[in-house]
Structure formats: C-alpha cells, structure tokens
Amino acid sequence: METLHSSSYNAIPQKPEGATRILLVRHCEAEGNTNGRFQGSSDCGISGNGEKQLELLALRLRNIRIDAMYSSPLKRAWLTAEAVNRYHHLPIHAEKRLQEIDGGDYEGLLWADLPKVAPEQDANWYTAPQNFCAPHGESMRQVYDRVWEAVRAIVRENPGKTVCVASHGCAIRNILCHAMNKPLEQLNDVDWCDNTAVSVIDFDQQGNPHLAVWNDASHLTPEVSVFAKQTWWRRENRERRR
Question: How many CB atoms lie within 10 A of CB 165?
C-alpha cells in the first residue's frame, strides 16, 4: 500500500494528573461513506482510501501512551482500533453501546434518496437531529443516552488511565455533546468530525468531563480526507436546509 505522510499535526496536550482520558477516534472511511449510503448499524467494510487514513492515524498515535483499547464491534471501527493498536499491542474490548445509530428502515439507503422516502426525517437529520428517528430503528435520544453510558462505564473501569475508544460519527457527536454539557436539543451545535478524527475528553476525579481536543484530523492529507471533498457537513450548509 502506498504510504502517505502528513507534514504536521496538532499536539495532544498532557493529561492532567489523576484524570482519566478518553481518546475518542472515529472510524476510517467505509464503503457507506464512499457510496453515499446510510450505513448506521450495517457492518460494511472499509475503502481503499480508509486504509490510507489508518496508516496516518496509526503513525500519529504510535507514541501516545494508551493503557486500554475499546471499540464498537462493527468492522469499520474495529479495524480502526486495530490500526491504532499496531504500536501498542493491547487487548481490544468490544463495547456494543459504542455502535452507530440503528437506522432501521433507512439502513443501506442512498442519502440522495432519503428526501424522497422520508422528507421530514431527512430535514431532521440536518437541522434538528434531536428529533431524528428511523422507523424500526433508534431515536437520537436513545443514542445520546446509550453512548454516554458506555463512556461512563469505560471511565469507571479505567481510573487514571488513557483509553482509546473507536466509534462512529453520529455516536461521537452525541458523546461530544455530553462532554460539552449540552442537552440533546443542542446537538446541532456540535460539528461533525472527519473519518479518523481524534477528540480527547479528560474526566477529573469527580467524574466531570473536560473537552481537551475535538474533531482533530490534522494527521490527514487533503488527498485522503473525506471532508476535504464534501460540503454537506459544514454548519452553514446544514442551516440552508431549514
């Protein structure tokens, strides 16, 4: 595989003494990202470009101390955790509560077709995600509660440690919303992150979250960044859908 090198990336700050650190990583580009499909809880594979992203992510995190590894069991997240673990050699713990939103009847649907199939839910996804709920799937409220329960459990299991957690875009957005002490109704104030973006949440000894890094994909080159080639995720473009 061709190896790409990012010229520089942002430093991750030192962990505060006594804190438990969650190093939160979004999975690499997957087939659903490439094909423009709602992949949700579907267990699809990763793309060739995703493999290049993983190379850069692994290099970025190789010298960062990591004491434990957790991942959504879905393939795209698990392969991302394995790439990070290439230089750390830790057991990876599967945590089902870190999975992506269950898209129910929308699983596998082209995003371009969602406005035709479900115009109200399509609008909700972009402009009022707190109201999104797919038939026979999960509501956003369920995701908001589920992923935070997972993170809290991981923090309790690993006091004072640095834990790498591999998850998904919508799931991570909900985790960051909690970490910012925002209610679900303010989820649209939390920006989406690029594939393999890194966020860092430090929990103090009282269990209070402090967001130290969010949505940092500075290890990616423009050639492999998904968001460098898309505009839907930009806040101003989401707002235009109102």
Answer: 27
Which residue in 113, 124, 59, 71 sits closest to 96, CA to CA?
A: 71
Is 27 a residue of the active site? Answer: yes
Q: How many whole angstroms separate alpha carbon 45 and alpha carbon 225?
A: 18
Q: What is the pLDDT of residues 191-233, one digit of tens each?
A: 999 999 999 999 999 999 999 999 999 999 999 999 888 766 4
Q: Would you call 219 a catalytic residue per the annotation? A: no
* Domain containing residue 105: CATH number: 3.40.50.1240
Position 3 in a domain: no
> Which residues, including other chains, have CB under 8 Å from residue 11's CB and lie 6 or more apart?
none
Please tell me whether the overall predicted TM-score, pTM, comes out greater than 0.90 for this model. Answer: yes
Distance in angstroms between the alpha carbons of the first and the last residue of the chain: 43
Which residue out of 168, 178, 210, 219 is catalytically annotated? Answer: 168
10 Å Cβ neighbour count for 117?
Answer: 12
Number of Cβ within a 10 Å radius of residue 22: 25
